[in-house]
């Protein structure tokens, strides 16, 4: 099978999150960091797809198998942004940080993993302040900047207040955040 076809199939397998198939394709020569231009995930790697879809087992497998933890998508989104904003899983975020994912990388709108963690639009998790706070704590204790504005003029603190995450806002203040 041609490499580009193998990679296209592998990327689609990553969208399904099946760790056994991911392992199979990697064992048979698929490029762990191949990209695909899906309209909703442009230039995402299989790791980014797994993180966006909240496939924890597949994400951890890809990280442990050597996936690049700091690639940028067309919109300059990183795996850490996706893990912080969609999966909000401490284990995955911590693993990405241990593998040297860039905590202060910015997307095209000036957002970082910290702003993704606070402002994610995932409705079922939107009110889970404790989950958000744990991710924010992880990011801040590993060097995430707390005083910056994205292109809309939002700061991590202003976003936490706007979303009603009072404990997150207090933690950010205790760590030097200003509105």
> In the CATH hierarchy, what is the class of the largest domain?
Mainly Alpha
- Shape, please? elongated
By DSSP, the count of extended strands is 2
Kindly, what is the distance between the CA atoms of the first and last residues, rounded to a whole number of angstroms? 55 Å
In CATH terms, the superfamily of the largest domain is Ankyrin repeat-containing domain
Quickly give the CATH architecture of the largest domain. Alpha Horseshoe
Spatial order of the strands forming the largest sheet: 1-2
What is the helix fraction of residues, given as a range? Answer: 40-55%
User: Poorly predicted ranges (pLDDT <50, ≥5 residues)?
Assistant: none
Integer tally of domains? 2
> On the 0-100 scale, what is the average pLDDT?
91
CATH topology of the largest domain: Serine Threonine Protein Phosphatase 5, Tetratricopeptide repeat
Q: How many helical stretches?
A: 10
Order of helices and strands: HHEEHHHHHHHH
User: How many strands, which pairing sense, and closed or not: the largest β-sheet?
Assistant: 2 strands, antiparallel
Strand content: under 5%
Q: How much is the radius of gyration in Å?
A: 17 Å
* Class inferred from helices and paired strands: mainly alpha
Task: Please describe what this structure looks like.
- There is one protein chain.
- By secondary structure, the chain is mainly α.
- It folds into 2 domains: 1-68, Ankyrin repeat-containing domain (Serine Threonine Protein Phosphatase 5, Tetratricopeptide repeat), CATH 1.25.40; 80-179, Ankyrin repeat-containing domain (Serine Threonine Protein Phosphatase 5, Tetratricopeptide repeat, Alpha Horseshoe), CATH 1.25.40.20.
- Helices cover 52% and strands 4% of the residues.
- The protein has a two-stranded antiparallel sheet.
- α3 (46-52) runs parallel beside α5 (79-87).
- The radius of gyration is 17 Å and the shape is elongated.
- It starts with a helix and ends in a 5-residue tail after the last helix.
